[in-house]
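Sequence of PITH domain-containing protein (Oikopleura dioica).
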Amino acid sequence: MSGCVKLVELNPLVDKGKSECLNEDDDHTWLNVIEESATGELKSDCDEQLILRVEFTQPVKLHSLVIDSGCDAEQAPKEIRLFANEYSPLSFDDAEQRNSTQDFDLSFDELSKPIEVRFVKFQKVNNLTVFFKNNQGDQDVTSMSKVKFIGSPIATTNMNELKKVG
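Predicted 3D structure, token representation.
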């Protein structure tokens, strides 16, 4: 990546109205880990799997993500699969079987540090689906305290704002 590109946290560009998380605990939702001022955790409900789908308000170049473990290290995410620009929401079966854009098998030591993606595959991301397949300790619940998306917005022109000259 070029040294002149400034990396920023992309979470403020997440469109909360178009984003969702499947299998989240009602008291521990995805907003707890995306919003900067939020505290709490994201926890799975029925089993260890979660699907977090984030829609960005504009295209972004994704460089890395940071996943902070929750209170219980055994419940921290282990295997995650990233799907860039999926226009139909994925089911859990889809997330297991489809080809992903990139997979990670995280050790506990890799959590809370930037996890770099294959930058060439994440150049123009409108939405990102993160499938949390399991956790560090094969627990029934997966939890985390923060998810940060790091990269840079792609400067775009809103064609609706252009005015005809002459």
